[in-house]
Amino acid sequence: MAAALANLLPLGLHFGLADDVYHADPALGSTDLKAVFLDAIQFQFDRLYPADTNDETYAKLWGSAFHARSLEGRNVFEAKYRIEPDPKTFKNLIVTDADVKLWLAENGVSTRGTKTKADRVKLIREADPTVHVWDVIKAQFEDSLTDGVTGITAKMAKEIALAIEWMGRHPKLAGVMMDGAFFGGAPEVSLFYEHEGVRLKCRFDYVFPGLFVDLKSFRPWRPREMRKTIIKAIRDFRYDLQSAAYRKGFAKARELYLSGNLAIHGEPPTSNFVDLLFQKDQIQWLWLMVKATGAPTSTLIEFPDELLVFEAAAREIEQAIAIYKSMVAQFGEYKDWMPEPDVIVLDDSDFPTNFGIYS
Questions:
Q1: Class of 2-57+182-331 per CATH?
Q2: Residue 264 in this model has a pLDDT that exceeds 90
Protein backbone atom coordinates (compact mmCIF):
# COMPACT_ATOMS: atom_id res chain seq x y z
CA MET A 1 0.00 0.00 0.00
CA ALA A 2 2.78 2.43 0.90
CA ALA A 3 4.52 1.70 -2.41
CA ALA A 4 1.32 2.41 -4.32
CA LEU A 5 0.76 5.71 -2.52
CA ALA A 6 4.35 6.73 -3.24
CA ASN A 7 3.62 6.55 -6.98
CA LEU A 8 0.59 8.85 -6.91
CA LEU A 9 0.78 11.55 -9.57
CA PRO A 10 -0.98 14.92 -9.38
CA LEU A 11 -4.48 14.96 -10.79
CA GLY A 12 -4.95 16.60 -14.17
CA LEU A 13 -3.85 16.31 -17.79
CA HIS A 14 -0.25 15.20 -18.37
CA PHE A 15 1.78 15.70 -21.55
CA GLY A 16 5.03 13.80 -22.10
CA LEU A 17 4.56 11.45 -19.16
CA ALA A 18 6.72 8.31 -19.36
CA ASP A 19 4.83 5.07 -19.88
CA ASP A 20 6.26 3.31 -16.80
CA VAL A 21 5.45 6.32 -14.60
CA TYR A 22 1.85 6.29 -15.83
CA HIS A 23 1.42 2.57 -15.15
CA ALA A 24 3.02 2.81 -11.69
CA ASP A 25 0.21 5.04 -10.46
CA PRO A 26 -2.42 2.78 -8.80
CA ALA A 27 -5.38 4.69 -10.29
CA LEU A 28 -7.82 2.45 -12.15
CA GLY A 29 -7.39 2.46 -15.92
CA SER A 30 -9.76 1.08 -18.53
CA THR A 31 -8.16 -2.39 -18.33
CA ASP A 32 -8.73 -2.41 -14.57
CA LEU A 33 -12.35 -1.34 -14.91
CA LYS A 34 -12.94 -4.03 -17.52
CA ALA A 35 -11.42 -6.63 -15.18
CA VAL A 36 -13.55 -5.42 -12.25
CA PHE A 37 -16.71 -5.60 -14.33
CA LEU A 38 -15.97 -9.09 -15.65
CA ASP A 39 -14.63 -10.63 -12.41
CA ALA A 40 -13.89 -8.38 -9.45
CA ILE A 41 -12.57 -11.26 -7.32
CA GLN A 42 -9.97 -12.20 -9.93
CA PHE A 43 -9.07 -8.53 -10.49
CA GLN A 44 -8.23 -8.05 -6.82
CA PHE A 45 -6.35 -11.35 -6.63
CA ASP A 46 -4.18 -10.38 -9.62
CA ARG A 47 -3.55 -6.97 -8.08
CA LEU A 48 -2.52 -8.33 -4.68
CA TYR A 49 -0.66 -11.40 -5.96
CA PRO A 50 0.87 -10.49 -9.33
CA ALA A 51 2.38 -13.41 -11.19
CA ASP A 52 6.16 -13.48 -10.92
CA THR A 53 6.68 -14.09 -14.62
CA ASN A 54 7.86 -12.13 -17.63
CA ASP A 55 4.86 -11.99 -19.94
CA GLU A 56 6.59 -9.84 -22.58
CA THR A 57 5.52 -11.91 -25.57
CA TYR A 58 6.58 -11.20 -29.14
CA ALA A 59 3.15 -9.70 -29.85
CA LYS A 60 3.24 -7.38 -26.82
CA LEU A 61 6.77 -6.21 -27.58
CA TRP A 62 5.81 -5.68 -31.22
CA GLY A 63 2.85 -3.56 -30.19
CA SER A 64 4.87 -1.46 -27.75
CA ALA A 65 7.62 -0.80 -30.28
CA PHE A 66 5.09 -0.04 -33.00
CA HIS A 67 3.32 2.43 -30.70
CA ALA A 68 6.58 4.23 -29.96
CA ARG A 69 7.54 4.49 -33.64
CA SER A 70 4.16 5.62 -34.99
CA LEU A 71 2.94 7.78 -32.10
CA GLU A 72 6.11 9.31 -30.68
CA GLY A 73 8.43 9.29 -33.69
CA ARG A 74 11.75 7.93 -34.86
CA ASN A 75 13.88 9.61 -32.16
CA VAL A 76 11.82 8.21 -29.30
CA PHE A 77 11.74 4.77 -30.93
CA GLU A 78 15.52 4.71 -31.36
CA ALA A 79 16.02 5.87 -27.76
CA LYS A 80 13.79 3.09 -26.40
CA TYR A 81 14.72 0.19 -28.66
CA ARG A 82 17.89 -1.38 -30.05
CA ILE A 83 17.80 -3.72 -33.02
CA GLU A 84 19.64 -6.96 -32.37
CA PRO A 85 22.56 -7.52 -34.73
CA ASP A 86 21.97 -9.97 -37.58
CA PRO A 87 24.95 -12.27 -38.27
CA LYS A 88 24.01 -12.39 -41.96
CA THR A 89 24.89 -8.71 -42.35
CA PHE A 90 28.59 -9.18 -41.43
CA LYS A 91 31.26 -10.31 -43.87
CA ASN A 92 33.81 -12.91 -42.76
CA LEU A 93 32.14 -13.22 -39.40
CA ILE A 94 33.97 -15.31 -36.80
CA VAL A 95 31.46 -17.34 -34.83
CA THR A 96 32.73 -20.66 -33.46
CA ASP A 97 35.82 -21.41 -31.40
CA ALA A 98 37.14 -23.29 -34.45
CA ASP A 99 36.78 -20.06 -36.47
CA VAL A 100 38.69 -18.19 -33.76
CA LYS A 101 41.54 -20.70 -33.69
CA LEU A 102 41.77 -20.74 -37.50
CA TRP A 103 42.01 -16.94 -37.69
CA LEU A 104 44.72 -16.87 -35.04
CA ALA A 105 46.70 -19.58 -36.81
CA GLU A 106 46.42 -17.89 -40.21
CA ASN A 107 47.55 -14.59 -38.73
CA GLY A 108 50.48 -16.05 -36.81
CA VAL A 109 49.08 -15.37 -33.33
CA SER A 110 50.07 -17.93 -30.70
CA THR A 111 47.30 -19.36 -28.53
CA ARG A 112 49.73 -20.53 -25.85
CA GLY A 113 48.37 -19.87 -22.36
CA THR A 114 44.75 -19.51 -23.47
CA LYS A 115 42.18 -21.77 -21.85
CA THR A 116 38.83 -20.49 -23.08
CA LYS A 117 37.25 -19.14 -26.21
CA ALA A 118 37.01 -15.75 -24.51
CA ASP A 119 40.79 -15.75 -24.01
CA ARG A 120 41.33 -16.43 -27.70
CA VAL A 121 38.77 -13.83 -28.78
CA LYS A 122 40.73 -11.30 -26.72
CA LEU A 123 43.82 -12.12 -28.76
CA ILE A 124 41.94 -11.36 -31.98
CA ARG A 125 40.75 -8.04 -30.58
CA GLU A 126 44.30 -7.12 -29.61
CA ALA A 127 45.69 -8.12 -33.01
CA ASP A 128 42.97 -6.48 -35.15
CA PRO A 129 40.01 -4.66 -33.53
CA THR A 130 38.26 -4.36 -36.91
CA VAL A 131 37.66 -8.11 -37.25
CA HIS A 132 34.00 -9.08 -36.79
CA VAL A 133 33.70 -11.57 -33.93
CA TRP A 134 30.15 -12.60 -33.09
CA ASP A 135 30.79 -12.92 -29.34
CA VAL A 136 32.07 -9.33 -29.25
CA ILE A 137 29.18 -8.01 -31.33
CA LYS A 138 26.63 -9.72 -29.04
CA ALA A 139 28.36 -8.42 -25.90
CA GLN A 140 28.38 -4.85 -27.24
CA PHE A 141 24.68 -5.14 -28.02
CA GLU A 142 23.88 -6.42 -24.53
CA ASP A 143 25.88 -3.56 -23.01
CA SER A 144 23.74 -1.07 -24.97
CA LEU A 145 20.57 -2.31 -23.25
CA THR A 146 20.69 0.10 -20.34
CA ASP A 147 17.68 0.98 -18.20
CA GLY A 148 14.71 1.88 -20.37
CA VAL A 149 16.23 0.36 -23.53
CA THR A 150 14.82 -2.87 -24.97
CA GLY A 151 16.24 -5.11 -27.65
CA ILE A 152 14.14 -6.18 -30.63
CA THR A 153 15.01 -8.60 -33.40
CA ALA A 154 15.88 -7.50 -36.91
CA LYS A 155 12.80 -9.40 -38.08
CA MET A 156 10.55 -7.38 -35.77
CA ALA A 157 12.18 -4.11 -36.84
CA LYS A 158 11.54 -4.94 -40.51
CA GLU A 159 7.90 -5.85 -39.81
CA ILE A 160 7.34 -2.58 -37.98
CA ALA A 161 9.06 -0.56 -40.69
CA LEU A 162 6.83 -2.14 -43.35
CA ALA A 163 3.68 -1.53 -41.28
CA ILE A 164 4.71 2.11 -40.88
CA GLU A 165 5.30 2.41 -44.62
CA TRP A 166 1.86 0.98 -45.40
CA MET A 167 0.22 3.32 -42.88
CA GLY A 168 1.77 6.25 -44.69
CA ARG A 169 0.14 5.10 -47.92
CA HIS A 170 -3.36 5.12 -46.39
CA PRO A 171 -5.20 8.04 -48.05
CA LYS A 172 -6.76 9.19 -44.75
CA LEU A 173 -3.50 8.91 -42.80
CA ALA A 174 -0.92 10.32 -45.21
CA GLY A 175 -1.89 13.91 -44.40
CA VAL A 176 -1.32 13.49 -40.65
CA MET A 177 1.90 11.45 -40.80
CA MET A 178 5.48 12.60 -41.30
CA ASP A 179 8.54 10.32 -41.28
CA GLY A 180 6.34 7.43 -40.21
CA ALA A 181 4.74 9.13 -37.21
CA PHE A 182 1.64 11.20 -36.52
CA PHE A 183 2.00 14.97 -36.29
CA GLY A 184 -0.29 17.90 -35.57
CA GLY A 185 -1.54 16.58 -32.24
CA ALA A 186 -0.19 15.11 -29.03
CA PRO A 187 0.90 11.50 -28.34
CA GLU A 188 0.33 9.53 -25.14
CA VAL A 189 -1.72 12.13 -23.27
CA SER A 190 -2.48 10.98 -19.72
CA LEU A 191 -5.36 11.98 -17.48
CA PHE A 192 -5.76 11.38 -13.74
CA TYR A 193 -9.02 12.32 -12.00
CA GLU A 194 -11.39 11.27 -9.24
CA HIS A 195 -14.97 10.12 -9.63
CA GLU A 196 -17.12 9.43 -6.57
CA GLY A 197 -14.00 8.98 -4.47
CA VAL A 198 -12.33 6.54 -6.90
CA ARG A 199 -9.05 7.51 -8.52
CA LEU A 200 -9.18 6.91 -12.31
CA LYS A 201 -6.77 7.32 -15.20
CA CYS A 202 -6.68 7.28 -19.02
CA ARG A 203 -3.81 7.30 -21.51
CA PHE A 204 -4.93 8.47 -24.94
CA ASP A 205 -2.74 7.15 -27.78
CA TYR A 206 -2.94 10.21 -30.01
CA VAL A 207 -5.08 13.30 -29.54
CA PHE A 208 -6.17 15.82 -32.12
CA PRO A 209 -8.67 18.50 -31.09
CA GLY A 210 -12.03 16.79 -31.60
CA LEU A 211 -10.46 13.47 -32.65
CA PHE A 212 -8.89 10.69 -30.60
CA VAL A 213 -7.00 7.90 -32.37
CA ASP A 214 -6.48 4.61 -30.55
CA LEU A 215 -3.89 2.35 -32.17
CA LYS A 216 -4.39 -1.41 -32.05
CA SER A 217 -2.23 -4.12 -33.60
CA PHE A 218 -3.91 -7.49 -34.05
CA ARG A 219 -2.99 -10.97 -35.26
CA PRO A 220 -5.86 -12.91 -36.81
CA TRP A 221 -5.34 -16.65 -36.41
CA ARG A 222 -7.13 -17.51 -39.67
CA PRO A 223 -8.17 -15.67 -42.85
CA ARG A 224 -11.48 -13.86 -42.57
CA GLU A 225 -13.14 -10.85 -44.16
CA MET A 226 -11.51 -7.80 -42.53
CA ARG A 227 -14.67 -6.21 -41.12
CA LYS A 228 -15.58 -9.46 -39.35
CA THR A 229 -12.02 -9.91 -38.10
CA ILE A 230 -11.93 -6.45 -36.56
CA ILE A 231 -15.38 -6.68 -35.01
CA LYS A 232 -14.39 -10.02 -33.46
CA ALA A 233 -11.27 -8.38 -31.96
CA ILE A 234 -13.37 -5.53 -30.52
CA ARG A 235 -15.80 -8.02 -29.00
CA ASP A 236 -13.16 -10.48 -27.72
CA PHE A 237 -11.01 -7.81 -26.06
CA ARG A 238 -13.94 -5.55 -25.08
CA TYR A 239 -12.41 -2.48 -26.68
CA ASP A 240 -15.86 -0.91 -26.36
CA LEU A 241 -15.30 -0.69 -22.60
CA GLN A 242 -11.98 1.06 -23.12
CA SER A 243 -13.58 3.62 -25.41
CA ALA A 244 -16.39 4.24 -22.91
CA ALA A 245 -13.91 4.67 -20.04
CA TYR A 246 -11.77 7.08 -22.05
CA ARG A 247 -14.70 9.17 -23.22
CA LYS A 248 -15.92 9.34 -19.64
CA GLY A 249 -12.46 10.67 -18.75
CA PHE A 250 -12.59 13.24 -21.54
CA ALA A 251 -16.01 14.47 -20.34
CA LYS A 252 -14.69 14.85 -16.79
CA ALA A 253 -11.55 16.65 -18.01
CA ARG A 254 -13.66 19.05 -20.06
CA GLU A 255 -15.92 19.73 -17.07
CA LEU A 256 -12.87 20.54 -14.93
CA TYR A 257 -11.34 22.66 -17.69
CA LEU A 258 -14.48 24.77 -18.19
CA SER A 259 -14.68 25.38 -14.43
CA GLY A 260 -11.01 26.36 -14.32
CA ASN A 261 -10.03 23.35 -12.20
CA LEU A 262 -8.06 21.20 -14.65
CA ALA A 263 -4.35 21.17 -13.85
CA ILE A 264 -2.02 20.89 -16.86
CA HIS A 265 1.31 19.12 -16.44
CA GLY A 266 4.07 18.99 -19.02
CA GLU A 267 4.20 20.89 -22.30
CA PRO A 268 1.30 20.74 -24.78
CA PRO A 269 2.41 20.78 -28.45
CA THR A 270 1.13 24.36 -28.91
CA SER A 271 0.11 27.16 -26.56
CA ASN A 272 -3.57 26.90 -27.53
CA PHE A 273 -3.76 23.10 -27.83
CA VAL A 274 -5.68 22.54 -24.58
CA ASP A 275 -8.13 25.33 -25.48
CA LEU A 276 -8.82 23.69 -28.84
CA LEU A 277 -9.04 20.24 -27.25
CA PHE A 278 -12.01 21.16 -25.09
CA GLN A 279 -13.89 23.45 -27.47
CA LYS A 280 -16.41 20.74 -28.36
CA ASP A 281 -18.28 18.54 -25.91
CA GLN A 282 -18.05 15.51 -28.20
CA ILE A 283 -15.07 13.74 -29.73
CA GLN A 284 -14.73 11.47 -32.72
CA TRP A 285 -13.28 8.12 -31.67
CA LEU A 286 -11.25 6.17 -34.21
CA TRP A 287 -9.54 2.84 -33.80
CA LEU A 288 -6.60 2.40 -36.14
CA MET A 289 -6.38 -1.37 -36.51
CA VAL A 290 -3.05 -2.56 -37.93
CA LYS A 291 -2.60 -6.21 -38.89
CA ALA A 292 0.70 -7.35 -37.44
CA THR A 293 1.03 -10.58 -39.41
CA GLY A 294 1.21 -10.96 -43.17
CA ALA A 295 0.20 -7.91 -45.18
CA PRO A 296 0.28 -5.03 -42.62
CA THR A 297 -3.03 -3.45 -43.63
CA SER A 298 -4.33 -0.42 -41.73
CA THR A 299 -8.06 -0.02 -41.16
CA LEU A 300 -9.81 2.95 -39.56
CA ILE A 301 -12.87 2.15 -37.45
CA GLU A 302 -15.20 4.84 -36.14
CA PHE A 303 -17.12 4.05 -32.94
CA PRO A 304 -19.98 6.60 -32.64
CA ASP A 305 -21.26 7.22 -29.13
CA GLU A 306 -24.90 7.08 -30.28
CA LEU A 307 -24.62 3.32 -30.84
CA LEU A 308 -26.59 1.16 -28.41
CA VAL A 309 -23.47 -0.93 -27.80
CA PHE A 310 -21.60 2.20 -26.69
CA GLU A 311 -24.42 3.16 -24.33
CA ALA A 312 -24.26 -0.35 -22.88
CA ALA A 313 -20.48 -0.08 -22.48
CA ALA A 314 -20.83 3.29 -20.74
CA ARG A 315 -23.29 1.75 -18.27
CA GLU A 316 -20.95 -1.17 -17.65
CA ILE A 317 -18.09 1.21 -16.84
CA GLU A 318 -20.32 2.90 -14.26
CA GLN A 319 -21.23 -0.54 -12.90
CA ALA A 320 -17.53 -1.40 -12.64
CA ILE A 321 -16.89 1.71 -10.55
CA ALA A 322 -19.88 0.89 -8.35
CA ILE A 323 -18.65 -2.70 -7.91
CA TYR A 324 -15.18 -1.45 -6.99
CA LYS A 325 -16.56 0.96 -4.39
CA SER A 326 -18.78 -1.76 -2.93
CA MET A 327 -15.94 -4.28 -2.64
CA VAL A 328 -13.61 -1.71 -1.09
CA ALA A 329 -16.28 -0.78 1.44
CA GLN A 330 -16.90 -4.43 2.29
CA PHE A 331 -13.36 -5.82 2.33
CA GLY A 332 -10.88 -2.93 2.06
CA GLU A 333 -8.88 -1.60 -0.87
CA TYR A 334 -5.79 -3.75 -0.33
CA LYS A 335 -7.34 -6.85 1.22
CA ASP A 336 -8.61 -10.08 -0.34
CA TRP A 337 -12.07 -9.78 -1.86
CA MET A 338 -14.19 -12.88 -1.34
CA PRO A 339 -17.08 -14.16 -3.46
CA GLU A 340 -20.65 -14.30 -2.25
CA PRO A 341 -21.25 -17.54 -0.31
CA ASP A 342 -24.36 -18.37 -2.37
CA VAL A 343 -25.02 -21.86 -3.72
CA ILE A 344 -25.79 -21.92 -7.44
CA VAL A 345 -28.89 -24.01 -8.13
CA LEU A 346 -29.05 -25.36 -11.65
CA ASP A 347 -32.25 -25.77 -13.67
CA ASP A 348 -33.03 -27.17 -17.11
CA SER A 349 -32.52 -23.81 -18.83
CA ASP A 350 -28.80 -24.04 -18.02
CA PHE A 351 -28.37 -26.97 -20.41
CA PRO A 352 -28.93 -27.32 -24.16
CA THR A 353 -31.84 -29.50 -25.26
CA ASN A 354 -29.44 -32.07 -26.72
CA PHE A 355 -27.31 -32.28 -23.58
CA GLY A 356 -26.04 -35.82 -23.05
CA ILE A 357 -27.16 -37.06 -26.45
CA TYR A 358 -23.89 -36.44 -28.25
CA SER A 359 -20.48 -37.06 -26.76
A1: alpha beta
A2: yes
